[in-house]
Amino acid sequence: MERKVKKVDLEQLLADGHTVQLHPQGYSMYPLFVPGRDEAVIAPVSPDDRRVRRGAVALYRREGSILVLHRIWRVGRDGVYFVGDNQAEVEGPLPRAQIRGILVGIIRNGKTISVKNPGYLLYAHGWLLLRPFRNVLKKIIHFARKKGKILSNSKKI
Asked: How far apart are CA 151 and CA 3, in angstroms?
């Protein structure tokens, strides 16, 4: 028996004042979100909302394109600048009107983590400080993992 699934318009739900849960796709926000494991809890937000600030994660629509969930790098007079946690490249400025919602929680293994949680706040601010070094850190981690696999696969005497 075929089941019809109604397509949900996230932007309309947010515009109507509803908080939504979604499964982020892709790895641009790794390690905060692992595809298939984590869910994002997104609340509606107005362009002038005080939660639109450095370090917050916002859902926005690229001009004529896709919805994106990235961290706010900077809020300036000319707009908002974004960067994914797994990226070093900053995108922007984008008009505040393109922001559709703001992250208020993460659901991981059935437990909700608030963006007000001290551990989350430490991660968010620390990760922003590390942005200039992310590419180097990724190379070091990749090299270490590769070396670890080689050493663990070597024969013991």
From this structure: 50
